Amino acid sequence: MEFHTFSNEIVFFDLETNVPNKTGQHFHILEFGAIIVCPRTLEEVERFTTLIQPKDLSVASLRSSRSDGITRDKVADAPSFEDVAEKIYGLLNGRIWAGHNIRRFDCVRIKEAFAEIGKAAPEPSGIIDSLGLLSDKFGKRAGNMKMASLAAYFGLGVQKHRSLDDVRMNLEVLKHCATVLFLESTLPNQLEGKLESSSKIMTRSRSSYQTAQRAMPYSKGSLVKMTHNVKDLLSKAQGNQALQSLIKHSHSLLR
Fold this sequence. Notes:
This protein is 40% helix and 18% strand. It has helices at residues 72-76, 81-92, 102-116, 130-137, 147-153, 163-186, 188-191, 223-236, 242-253; strands at 10-17, 29-37, 44-51, 96-99, 126-129, 199-204, 211-216. α6 (163-186) crosses α8 (223-236). The protein is globular. InterPro entries: Ribonucl_H (IPR013520), RNaseH-like_sf (IPR012337), RNaseH_sf (IPR036397). This is Exonuclease domain-containing protein. Residues 9-183 form the Exonuclease domain. It comes from Brassica napus.
């Protein structure tokens, strides 16, 4: 496969897979979703998503506990990974890869899938893993580092565990975390550690179905304005080498 490279573009991507429940069973990609983001404005400029039919349909669940979940019927008529491999390669190869826990999961699954069809896997020009980045800089303010918890903390809705929805949620979570940390770094004595107690939202535990309170860093009405602020800041940091400037500025926001 021969494609142009786009070393200064960011592609957020996410995979949905089966959950191996038998000895020797492997992960199989059931859905791929990606958005290409402008590094200057963080605006979505391209998107792609597809269900994927595994070679063994039995690895896909007959039913899903989620209303819009992936079932065996949904992937039965979907293209195989080999059918969409060229498109996925073109989206990923030579771009900055971004996502939540992609180093340990999504990147590995992509390489496995390409190896299985005997083709070279795409290579990133850099990787931004929001799990590692936010674990180090934002901490467990949301209770844990799961995307669902981080999204609930900022009032961004419920994680759907569908690829395109999840990558968009990932981008919004990253913007919000960066904004909070930037504000705290601007006035550390007044704000650091104090934004958490300014307001409350109600969340429901999946295990006990009991209602519990969780701290919100600020009211939902102010989130849109703050999101625009961080986009402006990242835009100003853009230079000739987008990867270097983006990572450098991300680290400055998250100190």
